[in-house]
Specification:
Blueprint lengths: L1 H15 L3 H20 L10 H13 L4 H20 L26 H8 L7 H16 L3 H5 L6 E2 L4 E5 L5 E5 L2 H16 L18 H16 L5 H16 L2 H8 L4 H4 L1 H17 L1 H10 L1
Antiparallel strand pairs: 1-2, 2-3
Amino acid sequence: MQADLDDFLDHLRSERQVSAHTLDGYRRDLGKVLAHCEREELAAWHALDAARLRRLVAKLHLQGQSGRSLARLLSAVRGFYRYLLREGRCNHDPAAGLSPPKGERRLPHTLDADRAQQLLDGAVEDDFLARRDQAILELFYSSGLRLSELVGLDLERLDLAAGLVRVHGKGNKVRELPIGSQARQALEAWLPLRALARPADDALFVGRQGRRLSPRAVQLRVRQAGVRELGQHLHPHMLRHSFASHLLESSQDLRAVQELLGHADIATTQIYTHLDFQHLAAVYDQAHPRARRRKDETS
């Protein structure tokens, strides 16, 4: 069984050319499955059935492994058995039809509207970095872009006259997004300075040497802005989450927010309804006389 596992890992390394990080993940997860098979006294991979694999998943869950970790383990098992089936070493997949336990879904961190305004409404120096970074922050919050979408933006996808930007999202799906007036002004102030850098390509956001900004560079600049303006950690996805939650709070139009975010499944967007409820609950606690009374009684 170890020989089959080693062959599969070698296949991932040499033929699939997966990263070292991914390879280590497969090795750890399938190592757990192999140890379970040895405890069950199984002599070959074809002897592992769905019931035994389900017992392993349940045991790991009781030991504190998250639903996400167990989903990754089952994915590794499916990949391994696809390989065994193709090689004629097995005739079934014990992970077929198995689902990991549902874990508690974490709500994304957001800025409230006042904090977002504090971040964006400060004085901006009229220089290359300040104008560029302001345009980046405004565009993240105005249009809800993913980090990959922002760094991949080319100038030709920007239509400031119409207030639109065209982005290529996950699955190479294209969507057109509105640009708010403040973001438009920030971009108009940035573009003349961008031209002075003599960009190497059509990238909208570049460094002083004219090269397209990397995701890491954008993350760093956003984090620095968070520390400088808010005294807190800030990352690009927090601005995207803030865009979505503030828009949903105002419009109550879940489908529209789904389209703007580029979510394939509305269930992904529904997490923002929980954020909206948290806001409503906070308003209730502050404003309702019975809620205030309960709070006063417990203090």
